[in-house]
Design goal:
The complex is a heterodimer of chains A (141) and B (273). Chain A is α+β, with helices and mostly antiparallel strands. Chain A has five helices and five strands, in the order βααββαβααβ. Chain A has a three-stranded antiparallel sheet with strand order 1-2-3. Chain A has a two-stranded parallel ribbon with strand order 4-5. The longest helix of chain A has 14 residues. Chain B has 273 residues and is α/β, with parallel strands linked by helices. Chain B has ten helices and 14 strands. In chain B, strands 10-9-8-11-12-14-13 form a seven-stranded mixed sheet, sandwiched between helices. In chain B, helix 1 crosses helix 2, helix 5 packs parallel to helix 6 and helix 8 runs parallel beside helix 9. Classes of the chains: A alpha+beta (141), B alpha/beta (273). At the A-B interface, strand 1, helix 1, helix 2, strand 2 and helix 3 of A face helix 1, strand 2, strand 3, helix 2 and helix 3 of B.
């Protein structure tokens, strides 16, 4: 039966590495949910993506039960991973930190597709290319 | 050892801010409204982290504040309490001490079932206390955490069949049955109640805390499983579904014996007409 929602928390955590330290503890502890159980479930479900930054949306109910939904990693994280970058450019229009091919953009768009409000891979690619440009990555092709 | 909380606001460049924070060593980020919040232990040079964020996003607003060192692996429990339901008390393990084990249901909150403190659980438990007496045989349909099965056992049932369709819930139910020392009374079965209920029949009481559409589907099976004079307790029904449910129980040959309302939830005891 339907439960009353008492809280909603959005975190970004490396896959397989959730622990009760901040920010997991500071965000979820005051909600009174079993943090160790959250970490165990999150780590079990993400062990195949160890270390990859994963957004997770946690819904907390009045009886302190909870559910969570995993999202795809942020495009910026995927772009940096794909290109081996440590950070983006502070002046994306002037200072370029790398370049990305259409094929690489497509690969990232395919990963991001489930979370993007797009009806075609081309529009998803366009969004990923925009994210790349905004961090000083030149899009080729 | 006080940690430092770093709150970064970078309108329109949230993903880049997140990437910059992780690039600077953040172990996780909390999306708090439009801001991203992360925390660093005392040994980290937070000023250097902020410089890295500003290299990626020069106009990002970065604010720091101390974070009290709280061990949340333990202190998440501070928000929980034991709660009393008539003759019974429901408590997590660490609050059960001092309560009479014979009338205390020990449930540790987990992901799917929480504290067992839902209005539908409370409604069914209240109604169960009205009709239970020693020696009755009970079937609990959609048992979930088995909280109602354990309640029936503590109220004197000689046998309880806890039937649950969701295989993921079975382990939780079995753990709770063991934790409450009622494994000699409560037997947990995984499967479809329409198939399993006739196999454990006849029973004196059926309790079912499920959504109302499933309750209606189960009414004929409950009818066939009850001994003469037996009763069914139905919970999980919204108050707004009252009239439709009254029609459904009348059509299936039941009469309403008792009602319980809490919040938007309606729980009932019914008997064969």
């Amino acid at each position: 039966m339907a439960k009353k929602v008492s809280g909603f928390v959005k975190l970004q955590i490396p896959g397989g590495r959730a622990n009760p330290a901040p920010p997991v503890g500071t965000a979820l502890g005051p909600q009174g949910i079993n943090i160790m159980m959250f970490c165990k479930e999150f780590n079990a479900r993400t062990q195949d993506r160890d270390g990859l930054i994963l957004p997770v949306e946690i819904t907390i109910y009045s009886d302190k039960s909870f559910t969570f939904i995993l999202k795809t990693p942020p495009a910026a994280i995927l772009i940096m991973k794909e290109l081996g970058l440590e950070k983006g450019s502070g002046q994306p229009n002037r200072v370029k930190v790398g370049s990305i091919t259409a094929e690489q953009v497509r690969k990232i768009a395919e990963v991001k597709m489930p979370d993007l409000n797009c009806d075609s891979i081309e529009s998803a690619m366009s969004m990923v290319a925009g994210a790349a440009r905004s961090m000083g990555v030149e899009v080729k092709g | 050892m006080t940690w430092t909380s770093l709150r970064v606001t970078a309108p329109g460049r949230r993903e880049a801010a997140s990437a910059a924070l992780f690039g600077a060593g953040a172990q996780g980020v909390h999306e708090d409204g439009t801001a991203l919040v992360t925390h660093f232990p005392p040994e980290v040079d937070v000023a250097a982290v902020i410089r890295q964020v500003h290299l990626a996003i020069p106009d990002a607003v970065c604010e720091t504040s101390p974070t009290e060192p709280i061990d949340w692996s333990i202190h998440w429990r501070d928000k929980l309490s034991a709660h009393t339901l008539g003759r019974l008390t429901i408590a997590p393990t660490w609050l059960a001490e001092g309560h009479d084990p014979a009338t205390t249901i020990v449930i540790d909150p987990g992901m799917a079932f929480g504290t067992g403190d839902h209005p539908t659980t409370r409604g069914a438990t209240r109604l169960l206390q009205d009709i239970m007496h020693p020696g009755l045989v009970v079937a609990d349909l959609g048992a979930g955490s088995a909280v109602l099965s354990i309640a029936a056992a503590k109220l004197g049932a000689s046998r309880v069949f806890a039937i649950e369709y969701d295989g993921d819930a079975i382990g939780n139910a079995e753990d709770n049955v063991r934790r409450n020392d009622v494994e000699g009374i409560v037997h947990v079965f995984e499967g479809d109640a329409t198939i399993l209920l006739p196999l454990v029949a006849p029973v004196d009481v059926v309790v079912a805390n499920i959504i109302s559409s499933v309750l209606v589907e189960l009414l004929p099976a409950m009818h066939g499983a009850l001994r003469p004079g037996g009763r069914a307790i139905l919970s999980g029904i919204l108050l707004e579904e009252r009239e439709a449910m009254l029609d459904a129980i009348a059509a299936d040959g039941w009469r309403l014996e008792r009602e319980d309302v809490e919040d938007v939830w309606w729980s009932i005891t019914i008997a064969k007409a």
